[in-house]
Write a structure and sequence with these properties.
The chain is an all-alpha fold. The protein has helices spanning 2-21, 29-44, 49-64, 66-77. It has one domain. 73% of the residues lie in helices and 0% in strands. The longest helix has 20 residues, at 2-21. It is elongated and about 35 Å long. InterPro entries: Phage_A118_holin/antiholin.
Length: 88
Amino acid sequence: MMIEMGIIIAVITALGEGIKKAGVPKKFMPVVSIVLGVTGGLFFVDGDVANQVFYGVAMGLGASGLFDISKVKNTFGNSKKVKSVSGK
């Protein structure tokens, strides 16, 4: 099953790149990848719907990459370091 998931993640990544080149803004690409992952999970993962959705979200997150996830956290979590006014 791991090989199939790897192939699905590669397909989701390729579809996401195509959608991005079609004009969808980069900030929406993690959401697009998750939607594609859930769709792939529903069609290609065996089990009940909750299991399919869980694996689909995991595949979508894997396809979007950890770098995109950290940027979302940085934007909403405000975890960037700020220099003090005194320069210390």
